[in-house]
Amino acid sequence: MKAIVNVFLKNGVLDSQGKAVLHALSGHGFESVRDVRVGKQIIIELNESDSATAKEKVAHMCEELLANTVIEEYEIEIIS
Amino acid sequence: MSAKIKVGIVQFPGTNCEYDTQHAFDALGCETVILWHKEDAIPDGTDLVVVAGGFSYGDYLRSGAIAKMSPIMKALKQYANNGGKVLGICNGFQVLTETGLLPGALKRNEGLHFISRHHHLKVISNDNTFLRHCEANEVVNIPIAHHDGNYYIDDQGLKELYANHQVLLQYTDEKGNIDNPNGSIDSIAGVCNVAKNVFGLMPHPERAMESLLGSHDGRRMLEGFLSA
């Protein structure tokens, strides 16, 4: 079983990297770009058979290590 | 002074300011020991633990994030919760916020550049061990060297910091006017916990010990830990 974790800065926490990419894209003529957020993706292979259990464990990993919930939020997708 | 002050300096893989820090506390007459991160106890009789600067675990995932999982951090938490004094400098500050011993978090610098230069700082709260030899509103000159020094805390947390005198230092110019190098909320450069036994700052007082090297302002800060 595989878990895909996406971690982003929370709304309201300034994403400086996203802003820099936004300005770079706008400056290169991609005028329709309205906003950019930069985050990270963590792909985890697990020895689990139940997707609910897997999701619960990965959520625990996010709270303990993978995300800093003071500034970041996370999404988990389980692929069996 | 009777017995020497005992200072433990935490070393993770990637820490690189531990020997500068040791040199600084040795120069102040302390007994110093480097504590490898695999150790699971803080030595008896330790008066201060310093989490030194550097790039623990290569800053992988987030600065300070992986270091918080090291065995010594469990012991350090217990030490701090029992009132033991802890100072986190630069990456050490990041480790202490990641661990939850200090409030807030350190983000990537707003300008996205690594910044390495001397910077002026204004002393905000000095009713604590660390800054008791500095005057409130005094401006000091201390080197900064970081990529992730952009201090963040939510509005409620910020109010609590001021109400409890937990804001230690702000980045300013030499006259004490706000001069924010990295986008930190309220230009905050260092904070302490509510109990005022855990301190963290991005600037490096251990690099400001000799006038010959640009500033000796760090000396008075570290001297705050010299007597109980």
Note the run of SSEs of chain A as H and E. Answer: EHEHE
The major sheet of chain B is characterized as: 9 strands, mixed
User: What is the overall shape of chain A?
Assistant: elongated
Number of strands of chain A: 3
Question: Strand order within the widest sheet of chain A?
Answer: 2-1-3
Counting DSSP H or I runs of 4 or more residues, the number of helices of chain A is 2
Which percent range fits the helix content of chain A? 25-40%
Give, in spatial order, the strands making up the sheet with the most strands of chain B. 2-1-3-4-11-10-9-6-7
Within the CATH hierarchy, at the fold level, what is the topology of chain B?
Rossmann fold
| CATH architecture descriptor name of chain B | 3-Layer(aba) Sandwich
Main sheet record of chain A: 3 strands, antiparallel
> So how many helices of chain B?
5
Gross geometry of chain B: globular
Total domain count of chain B? 1
**CATH class annotation of chain A:** Alpha Beta
| CATH H level, superfamily name of chain A | Phosphoribosylformylglycinamidine synthase subunit PurS
